[in-house]
Amino acid sequence: MSFQIEINQSALPKHRRLSEAYLKKVANSVIYFLKYKEGSVSIALVTKPMLHEVNRIYRGKDKPTDVLSFQYEKVKSSGKHDLHWGEILISPAMARLNIPEFGLPYKKEVARLLIHGMLHLAGYDHVKPTEAKAMFGITDRLLEKI
Fold this sequence. Notes:
Elements: E1 3-8, H1 20-34, E2 39-45, H2 48-59, E3 67-76, E4 82-90, H3 92-102, H4 106-121, H5 129-145
């Protein structure tokens, strides 16, 4: 089995969609960095209200967010790690609102959110300061390469 990446942007108007090749390049950079060879992930770019609703229903947080990750199943990789693959939902509208805070161009901000979501699926978190340092450090390294 190889690594499969599914991209869905059907909730967005055509002029708001990003190149699937670009999104796959970002996702593959995470997969390569983590040394995974098998698995799959679904990536959906959705509207701000859609992601707000998902956040309310599944996390009990009645507010908009920029990215959510949902693990579906644990897939044994041929690398050193096991990885929980699932779905990543990203709000491009929220990515645009993040631009002043993170100082990244729009496409790179979406890449940052995608990397963040994939790292969550890989088991990374940012609750504790040491975890956050590791997760955000990896994110910064990968963003530099894109």
